[in-house]
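Propose amino acids for all 96 sites.
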């Protein structure tokens, strides 16, 4: 599992220059999130992990929490394709 996380993080770093577009998370529908390229999904998930972390928490991205949140977000979005990604994250990504 740690290897998958490391690969996703590496893909995110390599894809960063290719993602030269603004992302308004309140306008991204779950069905768009699910259909997005893996690099964009990684970018969105990374941003959500930071957004749903308490302000004074240490700057650590916990692999187990990230994987659990990704699974829960995927399940929610598959069942609620017309919801935006922020609504979905509000439901399944509690602040640690």
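Proposal:
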């Amino acid at each position: 599992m740690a290897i998958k996380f490391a690969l996703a993080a590496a893909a995110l770093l390599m894809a960063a220059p290719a993602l030269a577009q603004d992302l308004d998370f309140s306008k991204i529908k779950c069905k768009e999130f699910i259909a997005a390229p893996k690099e964009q999904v990684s970018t969105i998930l990374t941003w959500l992990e930071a957004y749903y972390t308490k302000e004074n928490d240490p700057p650590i991205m916990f692999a187990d929490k990230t994987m659990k949140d990704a699974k829960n977000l995927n399940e929610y979005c598959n069942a609620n394709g017309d919801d935006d990604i922020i609504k979905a994250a509000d439901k399944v990504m509690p602040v640690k």
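The helical segments are 2-15, 30-35, 38-51, 63-79, 85-92. The chain is about 60% helix and 0% strand.
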